Amino acid sequence: MSSSRVPLSVLDLAPIREGSTPDVALRQSLELAPVVEALGYERIWVAEHHNIAGVASSATAVLIGALADATSRIRVGSGGIMLPNHAPLVIAEQFGTLAALHPGRIDLGLGRAPGTDHVTGWALRRNPQGGVEFDAEVAELRGFLAPAVDGARVRAIPGEGSEVPVWILGSSTYGAALAAQLGLPFAFASHFAPRFLLEAARLYREQFVPSSSLSKPYMMVGVTLMAADTDAEAEHLFTSTLQKFTGMLRGERRGTLPPLDNVDAYFRPGEREALDAQMLSEAIVGGPERVATKLESLVARTGADEVIVATDAYDFAARVRSYEVLAATWGITAGARAGTNSAIAAPSSAIPADVPSAGAKPSVNA
Question: Which pLDDT value is given to residue 361?
Answer without folding.
Answer: 34
